[in-house]
Amino acid sequence: MKMVDLRSDTLTLPTREMLESILDAPLGDDARDRDPTVERLEEMAARKVGKEEAVLVTSGTQANLVSLLSQTSPGDEVIVESEAHINYYEAGGLSSVAGLMPRPVVGKLGALSPDQVERTILTGTPRRSRIQLICIENTHNRAGGTCISPSQIADLKEVADKHGLSIYMDGARIFNAAIALRVDVRELTKNVDSMMFCLSKGLSGPVGSIVLGTHEFIKKAREWRSVLGGTLRQAGIIAAPGIVALEKMIDRLREDHENARRLAEGLVDIRGIVVDMRTVQTNIVKLDVSGLGCDCNRFMTELEKHGVRASGLGGSMVRMVTYRGIEASDINTALERIRATAESLRA
Ligand SMILES: Cc1ncc(COP(=O)(O)O)c(C=O)c1O
Fold this sequence. Notes:
This protein is α/β, with parallel strands linked by helices. It is 42% helix and 16% strand. It has helices at 16-24, 36-49, 60-69, 85-88, 93-96, 114-122, 150-162, 174-181, 185-189, 215-227, 236-248, 253-267, 296-305, 328-346; strands spanning 4-5, 53-57, 77-81, 101-105, 131-137, 166-170, 194-198, 209-213, 274-275, 284-288, 308-309, 311-314, 317-321. The strands form 3 sheets. Strands 2-8-7-6-5-3-4 form a 7-stranded mixed sheet, sandwiched between helices. Strands 9-10-13-12 form a 4-stranded antiparallel sheet. Helix 3 packs across helix 10 and helix 13 packs across helix 14 (328-346). The protein is globular and about 60 Å long. The structure holds pyridoxal-5'-phosphate. The site of pyridoxal-5'-phosphate (PLP) has 13 residues, from helix 3.
């Protein structure tokens, strides 16, 4: 039985074209004289999202940490959505490495409201406030791949400007948001000061994320990347597949979104499983299995026996993610197996 693995879009493998692109990529020592393929990717990425400059880093987590370090000082505070990846899954790097104090705010469908943000800024001793940055996550992973719209970002920007703060966007899946919202990605980036996106998720690149912002910010980001041991030599072997990812892999994300919707629509017909369809916007489906009388771990153990893998979000919440390599037929197979799992748990 072939497993249908819906744990994460980080499972995507590089395409043949990506692997072949490595063979012909002009390479150099990026730490010394720059690697021409890395330079090409960075320029292409900056143009694509409409930022002044870009720098290639090894992972999304490194991108977030480098970005935080480049625009804060130890002891500063940052507003983050309470379940943001930065706050939840990055081994506490924002505190232990960057020395930052998170000010978590519970968002709605992953988005912070301007009122909540303003209230947080004004709570405590605003005159001595060390809040520097508002961090948003688009799409929001733990909220179920939900999008933050250009107008929501514009509203946050108004509050940020009023209080002299900057906005940073963890845009690991920003192209998923652009495709789902049917907007040019620059509509989502124009009101943030700095950001990152990942090449290695739905875009299918094997390694790498891109940090973007002003020339000054990227200069600092290069320094912090170096401090973190992230300056690479012939990094063109990572950048070449990244170029293919940006050229060829963005539009097809809509297939992942269609498959996620097909999955969600099938799941709501299974007794004991609940999906909040408002959250089904991109390639992530979040389901509640409490109606089956079990928690996510028990459900996932049983599900794996039936040939489907998913990830747990804690309590009774489970996450399933679609990506290149998961076809519509796999979704049908997964649904049959999830139905059988639900029946065996109810028995
Ligand atoms: C929203 C978000 N930000 C950052 C990351 C971190 O990326 P990486 O796994 O490349 O460190 C992830 C990973 O899934 C993510 O979902």
